[in-house]
Amino acid sequence: MADGAKYEVDIEGRFYPWDSDDITTKDIIRLAGFAAGTQIIEVDGDNNQRTLGPEEVVELKPGHGFAKRHRFRRG
């Protein structure tokens, strides 16, 4: 994990440091360099998948997932 980062966000296998307790769909798209409007799917630790709304805010929770990583991918 990057020095001082509170979380690591896993977007299609690439890890991005993230300091806030939440992240928006737009933040995920921006971090990954995806085209605006790209559909984003959250994948939890049990491999359950959920499509995020375009204005959705996801609360990142310490202890969820390995090393506080949260996974997302394009839909």
How does this model look, in words?
The structure is a single chain. With about 80 residues, the chain is mainly β. The protein has one domain (about 5-75): Ubiquitin-like (UB roll) (Roll), CATH 3.10.20. It has one helix and seven strands. The chain has one helix at about 25-30, and strands spanning about 5-10, 15-20, 20-25, 40-45, 50, 55-60, 70-75. The strands form two sheets. Strands 2-1-7-4-5 form a five-stranded mixed sheet, with helices on one face. It has a two-stranded antiparallel sheet with strand order 3-6. Strand 1 and strand 2 form a beta hairpin.
Keywords:
single chain; five-stranded mixed beta sheet; 1 helix; 75 residues; Ubiquitin-like (UB roll); mainly beta; two-stranded antiparallel sheet
The radius of gyration is: 11 Å
Helix/sheet category: mainly beta
Alpha-carbon distance between the two ends: 26 Å
Number of domains: 1
CATH class descriptor: Alpha Beta
- Kindly report the spatial arrangement of strands forming the biggest sheet: 2-1-7-4-5
H/E order of the elements? EEEHEEEE
Spans of at least 5 consecutive residues whose pLDDT stays below 50 are 63-69
Q: Look up the CATH topology.
A: Ubiquitin-like (UB roll)
Number of helices: 1
Care to count the β-strands? 7
Residue share in helices? 10-25%
CATH architecture group name: Roll
What overall geometry do the principal axes of the alpha carbons give? Answer: globular
